[in-house]
Amino acid sequence: MLDVGCGCGFPLVELAQRIGPSGRAVGVDSWKAAVERARLKVRVHDLHNVLVFEATAEKLPFDPNTFDLVVSNNGINNVEDADRSLAECRRVAKSGAQFVLTYNLEGTMREFYDAFEAALAAHGLHDRVEQMRLHIQKKRKPLEEMKAYLVKAGFRIASVAEKSFVLRFSGAQAFFNHSLIKCWFLPSWKEVAGPGDPAALFADIEQRIDASAAESGGFAVTIPYVVMDTVAD
């Protein structure tokens, strides 16, 4: 099996343990630090059926028709070229192989983005509002668009399940200091904010988040996502 965009090792390590020593699990990610962490987890768990490569989804370093199962947990939505990446997933998948992917949908963290947009407008950064929307569109493609990419790449869609969960924080400080936010989201939000010192802008966002938290007994962000189960034709 192949995990595209395996990050720090989930679900790669879990799936490697599920398939057992008679199977082979392979992970790829373009982030060097994540690849090193995934390899560390492989060693800690004493797994001998796992290989982790530093590579991009757009150019997978494997022969055609190699894998029986391909998975991507919030990986395809973070690539530079989703069309090419999915074509590569199909190239390395055997005919009849299963390809399961998940990704966050457009409304992810809508509560934060509402505060972000309001702060941008209050600071006169109206052009950055459009940048924020383009950022969301790039990272969280509409479901029908992703379906079209999959079909074009040569996958038949077996099932689609839309779900959601909620992350709750005591307030802005807890939200911005959480490792998930600091590592995966905050850098791109600062890029969206544009050049210069974002301190005043983010202080405004924090005030808006804390005001919401005071009213609601905490700050909650909703994470809608989709699970797509497909078959390589």
**Global mean pLDDT:** 96
- The number of helical segments is 9
Poorly predicted residue ranges = none
The strand count comes to 7
- Give the amount of beta strand, in percent: 25-35%
Q: Whole-number radius of gyration? A: 19 Å
Share in helix: 40-55%
List keywords for this structure.
alpha/beta, 9 helices, 26% strand, globular
What does this structure look like?
The chain is globular and about 55 Å long. It is α/β, with parallel strands linked by helices. Helix 1 links the parallel strand 1 and strand 2. The chain starts with a strand and ends with a strand. The chain has 9 helices and 7 strands, in the order E-H-E-H-E-E-H-E-H-H-H-E-H-H-H-E. A 7-stranded mixed β-sheet has the order 3-2-1-4-5-7-6, sandwiched between helices. Helix 4 packs across helix 9.
